[in-house]
Amino acid sequence: MRHAPGPSNTILVGQATALDYVNARREEVGLPLIALDDGLAAAAAAHAKYLDLNRVGTHDEVAGNPGFTGVDVITRVRLHTPAYGASEVLAVFGGPRPVDAPIEDIFASPYHRGAILFDWARAGEASLVGSSAVTVVDFADIAPTLSDTELVAWPYDGQRQVPTSWVNNEQPDPMGADARYRGQVLGFPITLSGGPNAHIDLRSVELRDQRGKKIACRIAPLTATDAARNTAICTPYEPLHTGTRYTVHALGRVTQLGKVAPFDLAWAFTTREDARLAPSVVAQSRSQ
């Protein structure tokens, strides 16, 4: 497991741009920063406008609708810059809010977090406030960083001020097809992310509080067609306690490019002192 150097000293949380926030989180776990790309920013801006005009929150666009520029992410990106691969994360809020806040909610969503911690080389973003508040971040091309069996944990070992909860409005749903968890306040998801072709088989997760009490969490169901399988997730069924140290023990195996390696990882993190909950957000992630 990659060891985190600790909180960023060069990029501060609360910057005006989503990419600043993304790079600050990547720096915390020792990942390289993603370069800003104007072409990707233009693609993100076009899609943000489409979402606002049509009052939708999807990655796909429908030909003939107002603001249409391309059916899918890779098509829209290639209108502005050459790219052999692309991904997109987005959030749509029902009403106006500060443009620097949605990226925090996007990152809390575990599959989106996996996309943000992925080996992307460049990115562009757009935020607008119209009939709703929209944030779109487009990524392109891979800059391999992690070794074939290396994993990145979030929360990372020694992390402090970890959120206690999260509203499950993500697609795909990390809780599986059981609709009773949609829109529910759950504990902050724990993720393990690997390289571009990693398949992480998370066999068990033991989460305990500082008194040794075991906290139940649900491992995200995984299928062969899951586009986000390079990120494994375990989501606590209930919000975590504030100001509490938690230990994690995760067992499984990671497969990448024919290499199979078991992992047995243990680490700890501490939740923040307050129980602030981010407003509900419709968040979606897609890679192509």
From TrEMBL:
Judging by the UniProt lineage, the source's domain of life is Bacteria
Q: Name one Pfam family in it.
A: CAP
InterPro entries reported for this sequence: CAP_dom (IPR014044), CAP_sf (IPR035940)
- Domain SCP residue range list: 19-86
Protein name (record)? SCP-like extracellular domain-containing protein
This protein's species is: Paraburkholderia hospita
